[in-house]
Amino acid sequence: MTAMEVENSDPATADNGRLIRPFSLTGGRTRPSRTDFAMTSQVVAVPTMEPAELEPEHLSVMGECARPVSVAEVAARTRLPLGVLRILIADLLDRGHVMVHISPWQQHRPDAQTLRSVIERIRAL
Length: 125
Known about the structure:
It comes from Nocardiopsis mwathae. By secondary structure, the chain is mainly alpha-helical.
């Protein structure tokens, strides 16, 4: 084992050098409080005059959202797992710190049940 492998074998830092596990950033939550936005939805921070009392991760997300950017892009830039980021964005959205813009295509796309039904009928052919 090389010195680099020994250094990276510590389980506390195995996740991109983070000492904090992703679930601790969300308070143990595994699902966002809302599901009305997707990975391709555009997120933008709402300008505010008052300094917000937010966790550092929330502030990092808001910093990346100074201009409209997709949820997936924020995840890449902050190096947070997409599931964690969706929870953090939902928190910010619930508090009014960000706005999410959803494309008309996302609003009118078929639901999962419709897609499953189509797949089943194609298989039946």
